[in-house]
Amino acid sequence: MLKGIYHSLQERKRLGKKSFAVLIDPDKVDNSNVEQTVQLAISARVDYFLVGGSLVISSYLDECLQLIKKNCSIPTILFPGSPSQVSKYADALLYLSLISGRNPELLIGQHVVSAPIVKKSGLEIMSTGYMVIDGGAPTTVSYISNASPIPADKNEIAVCTAMAGEMLGMSLIYMDAGSGAKRPINESMIEKVAQVIEVPLIIGGGITDPEKAYLNCKAGADLIVVGNAIEKDASLIKEMAAAVHSVGVKVV
Ligand code: 1GP
Questions:
Q1: 225 lines ligand 1 (CB under 6 A)
Q2: Topology of 5-245 in CATH?
């Protein structure tokens, strides 16, 4: 088991290096997709795989993770939509608390129920303040979470939510417009949030072109997550990773 993924994220942030993660939803792939994605990810120098989805109906999670592990050394991070999506075959887990919503189940309830399993998993646990931002259409996450997203033009709400999450001790902030969002998160919101937090900032949801990924990083994103666009066109991995990695390296 790999340890220290959070440390690697912090270190990359300190050096001004931006990271790129490919999101794999086990419901939408099979062995041949995964193998192809892994090969493309290796040559594009993808930094992380996020694995998970809002539902994960299939039982493919463990096998999918094992296949990734077998073929590469890119760290795998679980991005679980529910406590059932814990697998010992991953390296780390985003321990998500939906701080943009007011659904107690997703703020703390499901964590209490799954705490013993999560603790026993041996995974590196990364507490994550998860903020859903309105992406212009209801997404699976907004429906399943039964919680309103933060309106896309309310930067101040996003700023205060992220600040609160960090002060509550969360190690990461993840702002997500939802999988397949019509409108990804705008750069002005990313910039404002990035200015007030020290912890790494993850951005995802509806990013379909490398230019957007680049602009998000310039605005302050530390880790860009792309799922849908890559499912449709796996060759995008190379351009997306290159765009993210091209954002300036800070002089220390
Ligand atoms: C969704 O942030 C992720 O939770 C990625 O979204 O699938 O739209 O890239 P996409």
A1: yes
A2: TIM Barrel (3.20.20)
Helix (H) or strand (E) holding 76: strand 76-78
Of ligand 1's listed atoms, the one at least distance from the Cα of 230 is: 9
CA distance 100 to 103: 9
The residue whose CA has the least distance to atom 2 of ligand 1 is 204
Q: Give the span between the Cα atoms of 97 and 200, in whole angstroms.
A: 16
Tell me, what amino acid is at 190? I
Q: Where are the domains of the chain?
A: 5-245
Cβ atoms of 44 and 241 within 8 Å: the answer is: yes
20's tokens: 């790129």
226 lines ligand 1 (CB under 6 A): yes
pLDDT tens digits, 228-243? 999 999 999 999 999 9
For 158-205, write each residue's pLDDT tens digit.
999 999 999 999 999 999 999 999 999 999 999 999 999 999 999 999
